[in-house]
Specification:
With about 200 residues, the protein is mostly helical. The chain has one domain: Serine Threonine Protein Phosphatase 5, Tetratricopeptide repeat, CATH 1.25.40. The chain is built from nine helices and no strands.
Length: about 200
């Protein structure tokens, strides 16, 4: 789901803050990066429509990792890396397939679970994304990047600013010195500025 689905007044204000976030589980830096052998998906959950074309899919890496996955059906790593390659190429359905397979083999990996949730969001499934984030938080209730994503999906996918406010406040509470908390504070300030009477109670 891209920014054209957003129907509330503060969307533009928030979007300027959120569009550049790197929400994937590996990096703390701002701005997209494409590692040669990615370990987790690196993409903002709220990227704008009309951004630069995604990097081309590296078919050599796909072939090598697919071969490795076929040879070792109990190895989650090549499956997750395939998910990352497809994610970077914005082929989210393919990424979902590989992240799901990786998560079956590594069910306690909150990073992979969250990356899978981001893919659900990008394929216009915000409710499924939020359910997947619940799985991530069951694994690690203080997973800051998951909480940050919950807020973004609440705001952009569900038009639930109050719910987003709750999630972003949780980021600040659990990881106050993190880059995620810095971004959450900016979003909270924007919401409060635009909607000073909004209560932080999640919607449906």
């Amino acid at each position: 789901m891209k920014s054209d689905s957003i129907a509330f007044a503060v969307a533009g204000l928030l979007f300027g803050l959120l569009a550049g976030w790197v929400i994937g589980s590996q990096q703390a830096k701002m701005g997209p990066q494409v590692p040669t052998a990615p370990q987790t998906a690196q993409a903002p959950v709220a990227s704008p429509t009309g951004t630069a074309a995604p990097p081309p899919l590296d078919q050599n890496q796909v072939a090598a990792l697919t071969s490795l996955a076929d040879r070792d059906p109990k190895n989650a790593t090549p499956r997750v890396q395939l998910g990352n390659l497809y994610f970077d190429a914005e082929r989210y359905e393919d990424a979902i397939k590989w992240y799901s397979e990786g998560l079956k083999l590594a069910p306690k990996d909150a990073d992979v679970s969250t990356d899978l949730g981001i893919c659900y969001y990008y394929t216009n499934q915000p409710d499924k994304a939020l359910e997947q984030f619940k799985t991530s938080l069951a694994i690690n209730p203080k997973h800051a990047k998951t909480l940050l994503n919950v807020g973004i999906v609440r705001a952009f996918g569900k038009q639930d600013l109050a719910g987003a406010q709750v999630a972003w406040q949780q980021v600040v509470d659990v990881a106050p010195n993190s880059p995620e908390a810095q971004q959450a504070k900016k979003a909270l300030d924007s919401i409060k500025s635009a909607h000073p009477n909004l209560s932080g109670t999640p919607g449906t």
